Amino acid sequence: MADIKAALRSQHIETPSWAYGNSGTRFKVFTQDGVPRNAYEKVDDAATVHRFTGVAPSVALHIPWDKADDYADLAAHAREQGISLGAINPNVFQDDDYRLGSVCNPEPAVRAKALAHLLDCVDIMNETGSRDLSLWFADGTNYPGQDSITARQDRLGAALEQVYARLSPSQRMLLEYKLFEPAFYSTDVPDWGTSYAHCLDLGPQAQVLVDTGHHAPGTNIEFIVAFLLRRSRLGGFHFNSRFYADDDLMVGAADPYQLFRIMVEIVLGGALDASSGVAFMLDQCHNIEPKIPALIRSVMNVQEATAKALLVDQAALREFQVSGDVLGANGVLTDAFATDVRPILASVREEMGLDPDPMGAYQRSGHQKKIAAERVGGEAAGWGA
Ligand code: LRH
Ligand code: MN
Fold first, then answer.
1. Is any atom of ligand 1 closer than 6 Å to the C-beta of 18?
2. Which of 121, 283, 287 to mutate to test the pocket of ligand 1 (most atoms within 8 A of CB)?
3. In the predicted model, what is the mean pLDDT of the chain?
């Protein structure tokens, strides 16, 4: 049990700055009181999630949503708050010029504009000390024939090569894939295979980013995780959950058993430890629920799935597997999943000097009321879509 607790104490779950801002759908973006107005206040909220969970010591930034005059100063502010700045996410999907794509756009000038932004984000990484450039392209087409699928892949490859060349030896490029939306016929990086192939073309510092909401319904995501781990190309996750499409709901809320199966492959693959290089990041939008407690709950959901995965009796599992005992092997996983790990996590938190009940502690802290009272005036952060 000691090693399980040690693994849980050293877990590192990165929260996304954009989850602290107002978000919604094309139908409505509901505003909430106390929402941050700038990158500094988003960092403060991320630090609050870390203060109550102990395992969320970094926050990912999205540029220009988190534009700052001095990124080194923002990084210093984060350190003062007890966290660090994590992955840098460029944004080449919210400019009119990107109607037909960004790096895959048929127009060379538009491709150059997108590339310039990606390179600017590498410069920002040098200021924030971030390791990961987290790339997602909305690029795609809406109608058959709209553009050449092959030519778009050539354009994508050319841009990625130039960004890759700009990385320092300690930096990485994570290439996120997504089946559809906002493009509704073809997406230029639609699946793990396309991302993986581009990463192989680029080099070892290019890794695949698995956003759990970006697959066709019924996709066996843990197979993708096991496959990429075996090839040392799993760069990380954007954890969230969904009932239908890219719903970006709290991780584990829709399908906790799927999250458990994913964490089982992580544990079996020896990838839980930070040395594995796998980045465990959340990517969520809290359209109707209060944001800081939603992220505290999300971090706890990942902790619970991880604790259950760590309880899998690997020796028994292997024995049942090699002896072809199907029910025996499956039973090892379902037994672990059925285990109530909340007492283990409560004691881990106490050992870390934290309240065993982070959600209750946050409610009792009155922090939500405090920020709602303080953050009056100015423009609440959002996606600006
Ligand atoms: C695209 C995505 C991507 C981010 C955005 C906020 O759906 O998952 O990771 O840039 O959400
Ligand atoms: Mn994502």
1. yes
2. 283
3. 97
* Residue 56 scores a pLDDT above 80: yes
Residue of 238, 284, 285 with the most ligand 1 atoms within 8 Å of its CB, for mutation: 238
pLDDT at 383: 82
Mean pLDDT of 289-306: 98
- Compute the radius of gyration of the chain from its Cα atoms: 21
Q: Are 311 and 336 in contact (CB under 8 A)?
A: yes
* Ligand 1 center to 250 CA (angstroms): 14
pLDDT tens digits, one per residue of 267-291 = 999 999 999 999 999 999 999 999 9
> What are the tens digits of pLDDT across the range 24-40?
999 999 999 999 999 99
Query: What is the rounded CA–CA span in Å between residue 261 and residue 220?
Result: 10
> pTM (2 decimals)?
0.98
Q: Is the pLDDT of residue 385 over 80?
A: no
